[in-house]
Structure formats: structure tokens, C-alpha cells
What does this fold into?
Amino acid sequence: MKFETRSEPGEAIAPIDPGLGSRLKDRRKVLGKTQQQVAEEASLTVGFISQIERGISTPSLASLFNLAKALETTVDQFVSDSPAHKHSVVTHSGQRQTYKVGGTSRFYEFLERGFPEAQLNACISHVPPGHASEVMRHEGEEFVYLVSGEMLYEVDGVKYELRAGDTLHFDSRKPHQGTNVGRDPAIELWVGTMRLFPE
It folds into this structure.
């Protein structure tokens, strides 16, 4: 099985708002919520929320989804160029919108949903060597197919080593984290029920 993916982000990347931390903080204050409240609602730690607001850390798309939900808004409010959904049953190589979170070198290729009521969402994730996501949890389930590279996943305290061709399917409500433990970038096909961007 061969996957055609982008090896470089290129000009198609829609970055997360560079002032993400301050915008999240402003939104939190408008709602009158404390960092503790947001952390609990987003299933993240207070320390991580503080780091994001100060611009020290950058959340993954999944964690940004949880944050947006806790702040009663949507992820597209923090993306400079929100995707225009076509609900096409086919997403051609070279025509995928690409998103990058903050200043990290990890980026995602957005795969279009086939129809408005679709329950599944998908993207191709490019993970640089040594990159580790924060521990997260959220509603739904996830399926990961590792196209290339080496990843170490920890789901609910159990570690799973994945190499090219391996898959992982788990309940997203359980704490989970992924780390690229290889020397090369890892490419994952991610499919899940969590909707990152609104219709």
C-alpha cells in the first residue's frame, strides 16, 4: 500500500494564530473562567494551560479542540485560514489543506469529509523526530495507521510501539500520548470521531 503525502509543509499551510496564547487567555477572562476550570473542562493540566497562555507551549489540534470547547467557541477561531468544506467523497493528493500548530514543525494534511452527516474525520499527521504530544483525552475513538517512521503510544498507562504498517485503535476518553521515537519524521493516517473543524 502506497500513500502519497507531502514531505514539506510548503505555502499551503494555514498556521494557528501566532497570538494563540493571548487570545485563549482573553477568551477565558471574558467567560470569567479560571485556568483550573478550563484545565478540568479540557482534560489538560493547569500547568499546560499556563504555558500555552504564556506562549511557552503549543497544543496539538486535539487539545486545541478541547480548549475551544471549554471556552465555548470553535477551533477555526484560532486558525488563520479556516477550511472551506466541500464534502467531497475524494480528496486528491496535492489539493489537501495543510495546518501547522504554532512554531512546531509538526503539521497536518486535512482530509475532506465525504458528506455533511459524516461521523469520521481524518488527517495525515507529519511528526518530527523527538516530538511528543501532551497527554490528552476527549470524547470519541481514534484509529491510527503508521505510514512510516516509529512511534511510541501510551494509552491508559499501556505503551505500544508502532512501526510502519502498524495500526492502533483506542477509546479517546482514555489518557493517551504519542511520541516519535525514531530518527526520521513519522507519517500517520489518523481517523477519529472528534470533529476538529465545524461545518
About this structure: Confidence is low (pLDDT under 50) at residues 1-16.
